[in-house]
Design goal:
The protein is of the alpha+beta class. It folds into 2 domains: about 70 residues, Methuselah Ectodomain, Chain: A, domain 1 (Roll); about 130 residues, Beta Complex (Methuselah ectodomain, domain 2). The protein is about 25% helix and about 30% strand. The protein has a 3-stranded antiparallel beta sheet, with no helix packed on it. Strand 4 and strand 5 form a beta hairpin. It is globular, with a radius of gyration of 23 Å. Bound molecules: 2-acetamido-2-deoxy-beta-D-glucopyranose (5 copies). One 2-acetamido-2-deoxy-beta-D-glucopyranose binds next to loops.
């Protein structure tokens, strides 16, 4: 009596397993880099800066992922996996190429002013909580991408942030914050570029992220977003629960 059900379940698992493996990306999107402007080596590998990307780490994408995981359609392009948490090779997003800075007025990347040098150091928090200053490009593999068309500065005095060793940017809570939690931004949600503080002549590295008018609206956006995600996950959970329940009652009904 049980056999038809068992067969059905097996078939279901096989079918869904197959569609999954067809669509399975080689790594997370935030671990890949756009290889449009790179040429393949004769054996099919790609060289991104000094990282060799083997053919099995390549895939075509027809979208890009932006601020807070928003997926936007894009022309079909090749991406390769370059970041690898298991090898402690972490990635960072620069808003512009090294040697350039993002001009918020023109919303474009521009070369650094003649007498200014591109800053190297950035404060970072190690896994064990120790704060250190690191040379950004020594610690991270960098990619260049904007989280949205018009990112805004996350200045430490308004939106206190901490850059984690793994590339996650934490926006720290302020006393009048709307939510209690930290807001964690993945590498698709922010980028880093030189910033010239009012009071100094030297540029520092600072993150930029998307539609932030002030902390409240920013944190509210995040809050709404995470609520939406929970609801989205709730629906399949309920469906599976109902399916399992009816499966169980039909099994026990037949015994
Ligand atoms: C492909 O070529 C590059 C450079 O010539 C080499 O370093 C790499 O090991 C080769 N990869 C494979 C899989 O043979
Ligand atoms: C940024 O762009 C604006 C408008 O194009 C320009 O007037 C301004 O000088 C630029 N700022 C810097 C620092 O280059
Ligand atoms: C954290 O780790 C770093 C590097 O591994 C080490 O130098 C430092 O002493 C550690 N700090 C603490 C508080 O364990
Ligand atoms: C990359 O994406 C994965 C899956 O969405 C997420 O779990 C991870 O925290 C992200 N990492 C970074 C550094 O953005
Ligand atoms: C920097 O200058 C801008 C415009 O002049 C001003 O709005 C801002 O409050 C200043 N920031 C600091 C930290 O003084």
């Amino acid at each position: 009596m049980l056999i038809p059900i068992v067969v059905q379940v097996c078939l279901l698992v096989m079918v869904s397993g197959e569609t999954l493996s067809n669509a399975r990306p080689k790594c997370f999107y935030n671990e890949t880099v756009d290889l449009r402007n790179y040429e393949s080596l004769s054996n099919g590998s790609y060289l991104y800066r000094d990282i060799l990307i083997e053919p099995e780490k390549l895939a075509f994408y027809e979208y890009r992922i932006k601020f807070l995981g928003r997926r936007v359609k894009a022309e079909r392009h090749l991406r390769g996996c370059i970041c690898d948490t298991s090898k402690r090779r972490y990635c960072i997003n620069l808003c512009c190429e090294v040697g350039e800075t993002y001009n918020k007025t023109s919303t474009r990347c521009e070369p650094m002013p003649v007498l200014s040098s591109w800053p190297m150091q950035i404060p970072m928090v190690l896994m064990n909580g120790t704060k250190v200053n690191v040379a950004l490009l020594d610690h991270f593999v960098y990619k260049v991408d904007l989280p949205c068309k018009k990112p805004e500065w996350l200045l430490i005095e308004n939106e206190p942030w901490e850059l984690n060793e793994d590339g996650i940017l934490q926006i720290l809570e302020k006393s009048d914050a709307v939510i209690d939690d930290y807001a964690d931004l993945g590498t698709v949600s922010y980028c880093i570029t030189p910033y010239l503080p009012n009071s100094t002549k030297n540029y520092v590295l600072a993150p930029m992220s998307c539609p932030i008018k002030n902390e409240k609206t920013f944190l509210m956006t995040l809050n709404t977003y995470s609520m939406t995600v929970s609801v989205i996950f709730l629906i399949p959970t309920i469906i599976i629960y109902i399916l399992l329940k009816s499966l169980r009652s039909s099994i026990s009904g037949r015994m």
